[in-house]
């Protein structure tokens, strides 16, 4: 009997810098598996954000660019426009994508750029130490909302997938999570679908992954999963918001 | 192809295509929007890529992404737009990617005005964005020279893997002059396989490429900055370009002036010569690297009693002139920065006050 489980070729053997219980590692692996399965490693370029995943390129074995805060969709646009044959994806957190980079993501999606975005939403700024993000939940305590997010002052959290799905052009908008094996399988299917649409030159594809940040939430990994289930998922509903089939 | 009459902005767009750059991203801003208008028609026809970005910030990163993927790429903008691009320019310089930026300057600060200016000298030559970086900055004084500088900018950007800026004032973009596009300035893009993220299959390699500007380790960051500095030192040694006027005379005043302003200075110098006042001029064609040694040597001439920096700003290049002179001769500044170009008479009047 041969090997039944091994590290994807697209994933490096670097020791992780992510915290215990962080779900970035799972999402990285899913992307690497999809890239292996589609056989596209040699023509893939990833774009890393600013945030915890700024070092994402350490864990992948294909070409990578490092963006400034929020600008990954503009960089991906630049790559894809001059090299439509390359497979391009941005990997962005919620501070990066939904705050400082909101302009870039909306316009890239609205132009129907033929790249893929993996949006990791863990409701907090991770790298800078747990500040409030546009996706922080109502009453959630962070280092800049020590009394909890007050929605009368800063509004309700932004549902990015819904916001992008309101645009006519973007083809594939989906939200999944990775807090259990069942959800991980669904998330992988979504990521594979997103890359497949890109491979077919079909549409812009966006996968939001509801994620955990035990360190900045001040929870154990298990508590973080439970909190995601109880607090985030009722607000950030999972599922396909838009597919090219429903758009066409 | 012979000479054709073209508006500066359109000639700049055409020059990029003739130079072998078929990729352009931009955001409209007066007084250079004609470049984007021209290329939105011309690039698709030439098989190239045109895209209007959502902001100058986004455009600077589209440029970064495309440059890092190995494409020849350029953009054009004007002063407030360049301010927004400075963030991206800092990243592009740090990550050592080649790209060409054209700034058709208008008056500032703030929204300023839409008339010609040279008030972005500091921004272009001293940084603009954060960190220790420089751009190679070329300043054309005619539409023809703008064409030639745009065409030479691409191989220079690739040689140094660094952003190159063409710094023109609004007049360069707006006026019409006869131009030709020299075939010998056309160049093939360099091979970028050893660093560009152009896909491992493209370069038939198993080694992945990484384009980045983050160096958390202090030694690594210092090494990257030393590597950048070595390039800027080399530019200082090898890329200084300048033109002289009436330097064979026993000039009493030496003018340093660039761009459109230097053309008005020529007229003033001719008129002053008729009055019996000999004036010489150095016109820097590269602002970084600045012709430090040449300005210094020219000021040493026995007959020269004063050096004047004449520019459409409130006195920016004058600081480089002072740096070049090291106090050997007195230095003055004259200029205007509201959008009016100083007249030959105003310059003559100023020169007379120096004597």
Give a topology summary.
The complex is a heterodimer of chains A (248) and B (355).
Chain A: H1 24-38, E1 44-48, E2 63-66, H2 72-82, E3 87-93, H3 94-100, H4 102-111, E4 116-121, H5 151-154, H6 160-165, E5 172-177, H7 181-199, E6 205-210, H8 214-217, H9 221-235, E7 239-242, H10 244-247
Parallel strand pairs in A: 1-2, 1-3, 3-4, 4-6, 5-6
Antiparallel strand pairs in A: 5-7
Chain B: E1 4-7, H1 8-19, E2 23-26, H2 33-45, E3 49-52, H3 56-68, E4 74-77, H4 79-94, E5 99-105, H5 121-126, E6 136-138, H6 143-160, E7 163-169, H7 170-174, E8 176-179, E9 210-211, H8 218-238, E10 242-245, E11 253-256, H9 259-274, E12 279-284, E13 286-288, H10 292-299, E14 306-311, H11 317-325, E15 331-335, H12 344-353
Parallel strand pairs in B: 2-3, 4-5, 5-7, 6-7, 11-12, 11-14, 14-15
Antiparallel strand pairs in B: 1-8, 6-13, 10-12
Helix pairs in contact in B: 1-2, 1-6, 3-4, 9-12, 10-11
Could you give the order of strands across the largest sheet of chain A? 2-1-3-4-6-5-7
Task: Write out the strand line-up for the largest beta sheet of chain B, numbering strands in chain order.
Answer: 4-5-7-6-13
List the domain count of chain B as a whole number.
Answer: 2
| CATH first level of the largest domain in chain B | Alpha Beta
Helix content of chain B: 40-55%
CATH level-4 homologous superfamily of the largest domain in chain B: Thiamin diphosphate (ThDP)-binding fold, Pyr/PP domains
Which assembly state applies to the chains in this document?
heterodimer
The major sheet of chain B is characterized as: 5 strands, mixed
CATH T-level fold name of chain A: Rossmann fold
Element-level helix/strand string of chain B: EHEHEHEHEHEHEHEEHEEHEEHEHEH
CATH superfamily of chain A: Thiamin diphosphate (ThDP)-binding fold, Pyr/PP domains
- Major beta-sheet overview of chain A: 7 strands, mixed
Largest interface: A-B, 34 and 40 residues
* Total domain units of chain A: 1
CATH architecture of the largest domain in chain B: 3-Layer(aba) Sandwich
Structural class of chain B: alpha/beta
Mean pLDDT of chain A: 97
What is the count of DSSP helices of chain B, taking H or I runs of 4+ residues?
A: 12
Poorly predicted ranges of chain A:
none
Please, how many helices of chain A?
10
């Amino acid at each position: 009997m041969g090997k039944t489980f091994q590290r994807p070729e697209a994933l490096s053997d670097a020791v992780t810098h992510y915290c215990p219980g962080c779900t970035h590692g799972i999402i990285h692996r899913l992307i690497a598996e999809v890239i292996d399965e589609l056989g596209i490693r040699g023509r893939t370029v990833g774009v890393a954000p600013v945030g915890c995943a700024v070092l994402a390129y350490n864990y992948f074995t294909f070409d990578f660019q490092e963006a400034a805060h929020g600008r990954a969709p503009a960089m991906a646009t630049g790559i894809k426009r001059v090299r439509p044959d390359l497979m391009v994806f941005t990997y962005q957190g919620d501070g990066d994508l939904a705050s400082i980079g909101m302009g870039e993501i909306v316009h890239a999606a609205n132009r129907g750029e033929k790249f893929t975005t993996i949006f990791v939403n863990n409701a907090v700024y991770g790298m800078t130490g747990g500040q409030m993000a546009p996706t922080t939940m109502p009453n959630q305590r962070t280092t800049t909302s020590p009394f909890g997010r007050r929605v009368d002052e800063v509004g309700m959290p932004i549902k990015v997938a819904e916001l992008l799905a309101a645009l006519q052009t973007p083809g594939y908008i989906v939200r999944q999570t990775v807090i259990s094996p069942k959800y991980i399988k669904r998330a992988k299917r979504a990521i594979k679908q997103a890359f497949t649409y890109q491979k077919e030159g079909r549409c812009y594809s966006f996968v939001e992954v509801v994620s955990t940040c035990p360190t900045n939430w001040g929870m154990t990994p298990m508590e973080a999963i439970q909190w995601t289930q109880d607090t985030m998922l009722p607000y950030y509903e999972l599922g396909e918001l838009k597919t090219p089939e429903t758009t066409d | 192809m012979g000479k054709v009459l073209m508006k500066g902005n359109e000639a700049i767009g055409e020059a990029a295509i003739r130079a072998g750059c078929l990729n352009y991203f931009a955001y409209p801003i007066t007084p250079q929007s004609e470049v984007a208008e021209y290329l939105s028609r011309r690039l698709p026809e030439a098989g190239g890529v045109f895209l209007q970005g959502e902001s100058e910030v986004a455009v600077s990163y589209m440029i970064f992404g495309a440059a890092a993927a190995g494409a020849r790429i350029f953009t054009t903008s004007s002063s407030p737009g360049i301010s927004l691009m400075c963030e991206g320019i800092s990243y592009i310089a740090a990550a050592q990617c080649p790209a060409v930026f054209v700034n058709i300057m208008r008056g500032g600060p703030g929204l300023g005005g839409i008339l010609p200016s040279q008030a972005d000298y500091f921004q272009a030559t001293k940084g603009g964005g954060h960190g220790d970086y420089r751009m190679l900055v070329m300043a054309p004084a005619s539409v023809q020279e703008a064409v030639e500088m745009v065409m030479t900018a691409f191989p220079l950007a690739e040689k140094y893997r660094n952003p190159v800026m063409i710094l023109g004032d609004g007049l360069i973009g707006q006026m019409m002059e006869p131009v030709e596009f020299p075939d010998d300035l056309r160049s093939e893009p360099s091979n970028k396989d050893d660093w560009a993220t152009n896909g491992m299959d493209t370069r038939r390699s198993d080694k992945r490429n990484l384009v980045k500007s983050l160096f958390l380790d202090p030694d690594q960051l210092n090494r990257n900055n030393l590597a950048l500095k070595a390039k800027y030192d080399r530019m200082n040694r090898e890329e200084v370009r300048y033109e002289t006027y009436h330097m064979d005379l026993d000039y009493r005043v030496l003018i340093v002036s660039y761009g459109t302003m230097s053309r008005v200075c020529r007229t003033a110098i001719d008129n002053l010569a008729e009055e019996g006042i000999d004036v010489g001029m150095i016109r820097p064609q590269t602002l970084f690297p600045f012709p430090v040694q040449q300005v210094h040597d020219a000021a040493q001439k026995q007959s020269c009693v004063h050096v004047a920096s004449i520019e459409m700003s409130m006195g920016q290049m004058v600081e480089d002139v002072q740096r070049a002179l090291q106090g050997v001769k007195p230095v003055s500044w004259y200029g205007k920065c509201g959008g009016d170009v100083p007249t030959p008479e105003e310059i003559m009047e100023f020169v007379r006050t120096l004597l």
